[in-house]
Design a protein that fits this description.
237 residues, alpha/beta, four-stranded antiparallel sheet
């Protein structure tokens, strides 16, 4: 279980979250929604340990403070998909996806099998030998998702994973995330409310003024709450 306790996160002089609490478990697919600038990406970055140190509160997994985790254990616990990232080295697709195995000290044969399975799942096995520098934006996104899947972490932190993907593939990869969430916890930042409604079991709705709603999708995604989300014109940053 991932537990956020009295989480307070500041960005400059602005407080994005004040006493945010939540529990996230294996078997759950969370959709994180909210207007631009409300702190969705910042929340995932903080959980993953990338910038944004806590002003107050704690993040624990099974009672262990994540800030006290060794880097290898943290990588085994969390895989993080950035909102946007540009490749800078000419790795092949297979090499890039295989990098998700770095946190694990497993046999090369096992790593190769897991890598191949992830490429097939993400429908990029035909690109295996192609340089990631020669891929389209959508193809690169598929590679990045496959790398996260290869990492086999307990918690997948996905920051707008649907970016650059066509509608058909979006449906496919959302079904993949839902399947993965049966044995892992998936936390996905997303602006597509309908996709969240159809595929996510739980929702964290971030509002302005340190307000938030968390619970099952059926409980949170009511007409009243969705109206509240879209009519929230407060300044976030």
């Amino acid at each position: 279980m991932l537990q956020l306790t009295n989480l307070t996160i500041s960005q400059g002089e602005s407080i994005l979250f004040n006493n945010l609490n939540g529990e996230f478990n294996k078997g759950e697919f969370w959709g994180i929604i909210g207007q631009n600038g409300v702190g969705k990406s910042t929340l995932l970055q903080t959980i993953a340990g990338i910038n944004h140190p806590l002003s107050h509160g704690s993040i624990t997994v099974q009672g262990t403070n994540v800030n006290h985790m060794a880097s290898q254990l943290r990588a085994q616990t969390f895989s993080y998909l950035l909102q946007d990232q540009e490749p800078c080295l000419a790795f092949s697709v297979r090499e890039a996806v295989g990098m998700g195995r770095y946190p694990w000290q497993s046999k090369k044969q096992d790593d190769e099998k897991i890598t191949e399975t992830a490429m097939q799942t993400c429908r990029i096995n035909h690109l295996a030998n192609k340089s990631i520098l020669k891929l389209s934006g959508g193809e690169r996104r598929k590679v990045e998702i496959a790398t996260c899947i290869t990492q086999q972490s307990d918690f997948l932190l996905l920051d707008e994973p649907l970016n650059h993907l066509d509608l058909v593939y979006r449906q496919h990869i959302l079904e993949v995330f839902a399947q993965i969430s049966q044995n892992h916890c998936v936390m996905m930042v997303c602006h597509d409310i309908e996709a969240v409604k159809q595929h996510c079991s739980h929702v964290l709705m971030l509002l302005a003024n340190n307000c938030y709603l968390a619970g099952t999708s059926a409980t949170i995604l009511t007409q009243e709450n969705i109206g509240r989300l879209f009519n929230d014109h407060s300044q976030h940053d």
